[in-house]
Write a structure and sequence with these properties.
This protein is of the alpha+beta class and 453 residues long. The chain folds into 3 domains: 3-101; 176-258, no CATH class; 263-452. Helices cover 74% and strands 7% of the residues. It has 12 helices and 5 strands. The chain has a 5-stranded mixed beta barrel. Strand 4 and strand 5 form a beta hairpin. Helix 10 (332-351) runs antiparallel to helix 12. It starts with a helix and ends with a helix. The relative contact order is 0.05. Mean pLDDT is 79; it is low at 1-24.
């Protein structure tokens, strides 16, 4: 009996009964209610039991199906494992056969890849690519290929090699984009290509930037005679023969033109010492020029005086002769002393300034030596701070040491020659004065000797 039935029965027992008849009717009803409830509970329990039995049977069936599927999958796994092992063995056999078959072609394959890479690099760096872009892409892809190339691909590689050889001997005129000095890309400029060596545009030399695959105008052009050749070649008519200088290194020499410093840059590298040497040289040259003009003027005046009979005080020789003409009756000894005094007065202006030029050409190499010592000190300081790993760190000091030495010699050598020439010129003029004075004394002595005899 369920908990509900027990509760109803207990309630009926405890509840008071007002009469016998009512009690009988109530008990019957209670009995029927109890029977009904018991029957209902029994039916529910039966349904629960049947459902449990059905579910248990279903679970057994599901378990059997799961076990059957597990056995099927295990059998399939065994078949796959066996197939995998068989495929591995077959793959090893096939790889062995492939290695054996590729043994004879392996060296050829490696050579093709190497040649394709080398030719691709040459074509990529060639100026012909400015006219025919994109040729190196195929060779770069062929150099990275992992399978054997076909005969058609080998023929194409051979064709690219022949095309490069053919274009290296041609002078071609075409339009191509060019990067100007301002860094702007001019899309359509006429370019003259000289084989694989040089490219010209607007009478200027171009260089090939292989990384960016573009023609670039050189920021610093070669000497004027080479630019004149470039302009003549670009303006030449078809079939016309003209002179032209080519860069056989494919732009390496022209690239050095950009890196080579100008005279102004070398002057800045020499530092303050170089400026002092240059100043000494300028002063020496200007003073030498002035002194040369003075000696040349006095020399012409002396030569004119030689042709005149009357002494003129506008030149040195005239002033010396004037000493005799003012008093022609004086004795020989007195005249000789007066002439010597006059020559000495004219000698000093002629030789004045020459010692300064001598001092300048002596000082200039000494200042250059000073710059050399300072440059070496700077170089050793750089070595102390940064070591010898990067030679460019020592370039400034070495440049200063060498350039100041060169400047000192460049100033000293011409000043030495100029001083020698000016000194010789001054001595020649003084010798003319001495010769004329000696001639005057000789004639006077001869006249006096003739009268006395």
């Amino acid at each position: 009996m369920s908990f509900r039935m027990i509760w109803i029965a207990a309630a009926l027992v405890i509840a008071p009964l007002p009469g016998q008849a009512q009690e009988t009717e109530t008990l019957q009803d209670l009995l029927r209610e109890v029977e009904r409830i018991a029957s209902e509970e029994a039916r529910v329990d039966e349904q629960r039991l049947q459902r449990f039995i059905r579910e248990r049977a279903n679970q057994r069936q599901l378990l059997d199906e799961a076990l059957a599927e597990l056995r099927s999958e295990e059998a399939r796994s065994e078949r796959l494992r066996a197939g995998f092992d068989a495929n591995e063995l077959e793959l090893v056999e096939l790889e062995t056969a492939l290695d054996e078959r590729m043994g004879n072609l392996g060296e050829l394959f490696g050579l093709v890849r190497q040649v394709a890479g080398d030719v691709g690099t040459v074509i990529e760096e060639s100026m012909v690519s400015a006219q025919m872009p994109g040729r190196a892409d195929y060779l770069a892809e062929l150099a990275q290929r992992r399978e054997l190339p076909t005969s058609k691909e080998l023929s194409r590689m051979w064709l690219e090699m022949v095309q490069e050889i053919y274009q290296s001997g041609r002078i071609v005129r075409f339009n191509a984009p060019v990067v100007n000095l301002e860094g702007q890309l001019e899309s359509n400029r006429e370019v003259v290509r000289i084989g694989v060596f040089n490219a010209l545009s607007d009478g200027k030399f171009l260089t090939w930037n292989a990384g960016a695959q573009e023609l670039v105008e050189l920021p610093r052009q070669p000497d004027g005679r080479f630019l004149a050749m470039a302009a003549d070649l670009q303006n030449a008519a078809p079939g016309e023969v003209t002179d032209m200088a080519i860069d056989g290194t494919r732009g390496a020499i022209l690239a050095q033109v950009v890196r080579s410093p100008t005279w102004e840059e070398r002057r800045r590298q020499s530092g303050p010492v170089g400026n002092v040497i240059i100043a000494l040289g300028v002063i020496g040259l200007l003073f030498s020029f002035w002194k040369g003009v003075v000696l040349f003027t006095r020399g012409r005046a002396i030569k004119r005086q030689l042709k005149l009979g009357e002494a003129s005080e506008g030149n040195a020789l005239g002033r010396v002769i004037k000493v005799y003409q003012d008093d022609p009756h004086q004795d020989v000894e007195t005249l000789e002393l007066k002439l010597d005094e006059a020559i000495l007065r004219e000698t000093a202006p002629m030789e004045s300034g020459l010692p300064l030029i001598k001092v300048l050409y002596v000082i200039a190499p000494l200042v250059g030596l000073l710059g050399t010592v300072i440059g070496m000190i700077l170089t050793f300081q750089q070595i102390t701070l940064f070591g010898t790993g990067d030679p460019r760190m020592m370039a400034n000091g070495i440049s200063m040491a060498l350039i100041t030495t060169v400047l000192g010699l460049v100033v000293a050598i011409p000043l030495t020659i100029i001083h020698s020439l000016l000194h010789s010129r001054a001595r020649a003029l003084i010798q003319i004065l001495e010769e004329q004075a000696a001639g005057i004394i000789a004639r006077l002595a001869e006249q006096r000797h003739g009268r006395s005899s």
